[in-house]
From TrEMBL:
It comes from Coprinellus micaceus (Glistening ink-cap mushroom). Residues 56-238 form the Phosphoribulokinase/uridine kinase domain. Its EC number is 2.7.1.48. This is uridine/cytidine kinase. InterPro entries: P-loop_NTPase, PRK/URK, PRTase-like, PRTase_dom, Uridine_kinase-like. Keywords: Kinase, Nucleotide-binding, Transferase. SUPFAM superfamilies: P-loop containing nucleoside triphosphate hydrolases, PRTase-like.
Length: 524
């Protein structure tokens, strides 16, 4: 067997947490690596549809040719590019029968043949990641020579580096690559590297390494691997390859720049868009509230009283905390009306049958958009008991003002697409102004398979002249429940958030009269 002696799983490193992911010396020995640096920018347009795929690089070459080194050097040189995934073909070895396991433990099973890999699964997972969807990568145990039952969840890649000796063998895989790289090294150099690695790192004998090399590795390279160099866009030497890597990185940066979206600038000027048609079938240059199809709480004296307290800048934190929870509870209760219910008959303590209703659903969860969405979480939990709650961390990029997806911690059943299709999801956010964060949050759920008409978005405030009209046109089936609708949104600036030596002002869009920074007022 020529596959590496790796542990199971996929390593995930985040800049700012421990060692820097962009330093090659800090990378773990595991080949499958997710490197998160600056957050994922929008991959969709103002119509809500995907406008660009992840950029996929296939890196092939002989065993010990230097493929992994090239992949990690690319990561190091692309330090400013967000969310890079190194995906190794070693995760996709087939499930083995008991007979095959016996051969594997006796070092008699050929892991260097294309048939040893589950190429259709490799292509399917890579196609999902390229299409900006979630994927569940199989986990292969090299100690047990077997694919495990559990999988590894991956989502949000901007650049995917698919690395392996057979990375260019399958036509279905080659069709997914935006750039195909073949790492070429002299056979004597590859053999010398294998002997040194296997003897020093894996405790093998020189005779054992040579027997394996002559029986499996060399024939595989000659028959399957080396011919795939003809499919490569660029041939990279297995050593002294700094110039080739620099050229590849220049090409990738240009591709990444060409895909820049500048999303928020498009939806922050909603007067350029024709609002949705009203129920009468006519349209107007002025965005009317009834045209937006929002569910707004009745403006009773109670609601107006709570809103008055929350809008008051002199309200102390404890009062703000208490009344925000009350308003969130009312929003959650109102939102229950949009869940499916079926008839149910129960027997009362008096022994009389009562014909009532019960929710007709199997999966229900909440997802907060951090951090102002956290102000609605307690109210959600009070109304819907025992439902899991996940979170999305979406922040503003300093230079462009675009939303950046920094982290997605979603409930387990949302991470599995066949279950997510049956799930109902409450999205929770403090307000919808330009709607940039709302766009990204809804798009994330759709990428995971959640149905648009099963998303309920709850927010305290919505700006009528903000991006809500664009959001409603893009996702008309999403139900949006709010406590109030404010008329104005204006541009402003806040201090902080820039890099050293740069301007410390960040452009923001503020709802007026609004509630201020809801997350800060709730948590600080």
């Amino acid at each position: 067997m020529s596959h590496p002696d790796l542990t199971t799983g996929i390593e995930r490193l985040v800049l700012g947490e421990g060692d820097k992911a962009t330093e090659v010396a800090a990378l773990p020995p595991k080949k499958n690596t997710v490197l998160v640096s600056h957050g994922r920018p929008p991959w969709y347009g103002e119509d809500g549809q995907r406008i660009c795929d992840a950029f996929v690089i296939g890196v092939a070459g002989g065993s010990a040719s230097g493929k992994t080194h090239v992949a990690r050097q690319l990561v190091k040189k692309l330090g400013s590019i967000p969310t890079v995934i190194i995906l190794s073909q070693d995760s996709f070895y087939r499930y083995h029968t008991p007979e095959e396991l016996a051969l594997a433990h006796a070092n008699l099973l050929d892991f260097d043949h294309p048939d040893a890999l589950d190429m259709p699964m490799f292509a399917a997972c890579l196609a999902d990641l390229k299409a900006c969807k979630q994927s569940n990568i199989p986990i292969y145990s090299f100690a047990e020579h077997q694919r495990l039952q559990e999988t590894k969840y991956l989502y949000g890649a901007t650049i995917i580096i698919a690395e392996g000796i057979m990375a260019l063998v399958d036509p279905a895989l080659r069709a997914l690559y935006d750039l195909k790289v073949f790492v070429q090294a002299d056979s004597d150099l590859m053999l010398a590297r294998r002997i040194k690695r296997d003897v020093t790192e894996r405790g093998r004998t020189v005779d054992g390494v040579l027997d394996q090399y002559l029986r499996f590795v060399k024939p595989s390279y000659d028959n399957f691997v080396r011919p795939t160099a003809a499919h490569a866009d660029i041939i990279v030497p297995g050593s002294n390859n700094d110039v080739a890597i620099a050229l590849i990185c220049t090409h990738i940066r240009q591709q990444f720049q060409d895909r820049a979206n500048r999303f928020r600038a498009k939806i922050a000027i909603p007067h350029l868009y024709v609002p949705p048609k009203s129920r009468s079938g006519t349209s107007s240059p002025e965005c009317k509230l009834e045209d937006l199809d929002l569910i707004c709480l009745p403006q009773t004296p109670q609601i107006q009283g709570i809103l008055t307290i929350l809008r008051d800048r002199t309200t102390d934190r404890q009062d703000f905390y208490f009344f925000a929870d009350r308003l969130a509870t009312l929003l959650a209760e109102r939102s229950l009306e949009f869940l499916p219910f079926v008839s149910k008959t129960v027997s009362t303590p008096m022994g009389v049958d009562y014909h009532g209703q019960e929710p007709d659903l199997q999966y229900l969860c909440g997802v907060t958009i951090l951090r102002s969405g956290g102000a609605l979480e307690r109210g959600f939990r009070r109304v819907i008991n025992n439902a899991p709650v996940g979170s999305l961390l979406i922040q503003t990029e300093h230079e462009t003002g675009d939303p950046l997806l920094l982290q997605a911690k979603l409930p387990d059943f949302v991470r599995q697409r066949h279950i997510a299709e049956k799930a109902w999801v409450y999205l929770l956010d403090g307000q919808i102004g330009t709607a940039a964060a709302a766009f990204m949050a809804i798009r994330v759920l759709l990428d995971h398979g959640v149905q648009e008409d099963r998303i309920i978005f709850a927010a305290f405030l919505i700006a009528r002249t903000g991006g809500i009209s664009v959001l409603r046109k893009a996702f008309p089936k999403v139900r949006i429940v709010c406590a109030a609708v404010d008329d104005r949104i204006s541009e402003g600036w806040i201090e902080g958030g820039a890099k050293p030596g740069e301007s410390n002002r960040t452009k923001v869009w503020l709802i007026q009269p609004g509630m201020g920074q809801i997350g800060d007022r709730y948590y600080l």
